[in-house]
């Protein structure tokens, strides 16, 4: 398994833009997101989710207002357009407000405007079948918090300051926390916390602990 030093790991995370996994789509896109083994499909943003669709979601509170349900539809739609089998970069970028930002909190990187699309493309280039398994959803007015796992197959080469990590075909299953902040049906800010250590381990990359000893 390839070994990387601490600085390389942090830099690589920023380059890869791994946190850009769940960016919102334009309100007209249909949503389809697998949740706990069930698939919520054909959900139009700003339309009321059916009781059956809501019941399939791992919601922490099922007494949602119409406004909250509409916001939830936007977020579910976002996961759909970021999936490897339903990629829509244009919808992905247009879903944000003009000053909307995506913050990859773990990598310490911020993206805005056209760079949002670059993040999505980089992710799919590494994991063409990227998928998000939603585990817990909390909706509070214009704020939505989600615990999820980012899953996929490592099929694309990862360019790093230390060289190229060749794809292994290994499966990644990465614990992640997403925090969405919406305004008027669009994403004002999206904060993502990705478990990079687990992700790199799944990709065959180990942290070089020895390089940090004695410094």
TrEMBL record:
Taxonomic source organism: Streptomyces corchorusii (Streptomyces chibaensis)
SnoaL-like domain segment(s): 85-189
Keywords noted in UniProt: Signal
Protein name stated in the entry: SnoaL-like domain-containing protein
Pfam families, per database record: SnoaL_2
Signal peptide (UniProt feature, chain positions): 1-24
């Amino acid at each position: 398994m390839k070994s990387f030093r601490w600085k390389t790991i942090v830099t690589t995370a920023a380059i890869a833009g791994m946190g850009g996994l769940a960016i919102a789509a334009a309100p007209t896109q249909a949503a389809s997101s697998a949740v706990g083994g069930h698939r919520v499909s054909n959900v139009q943003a700003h339309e009321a989710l059916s009781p059956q669709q809501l019941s399939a979601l791992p919601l922490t509170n099922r007494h949602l207002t119409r406004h909250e349900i509409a916001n939830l539809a936007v977020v579910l739609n976002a996961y759909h357009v970021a999936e490897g089998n339903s990629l829509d970069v244009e919808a992905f970028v247009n879903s944000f407000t003009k000053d909307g930002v995506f913050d990859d909190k773990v990598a310490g990187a911020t993206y805005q405007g056209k760079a949002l699309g670059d993040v999505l493309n980089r992710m799919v280039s590494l994991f063409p079948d990227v998928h998000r398994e939603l585990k817990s959803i909390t909706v509070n007015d214009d704020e939505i918090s989600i615990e999820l796992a980012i899953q996929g197959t490592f099929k694309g080469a990862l360019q790093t300051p230390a060289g190229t990590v060749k794809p292994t075909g290994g499966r990644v299953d990465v614990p992640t926390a997403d925090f969405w902040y919406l305004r008027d049906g669009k994403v004002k800010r999206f904060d993502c916390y990705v478990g990079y250590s687990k992700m790199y381990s799944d990709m065959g990359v180990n942290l070089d602990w020895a390089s940090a000893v004695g410094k």
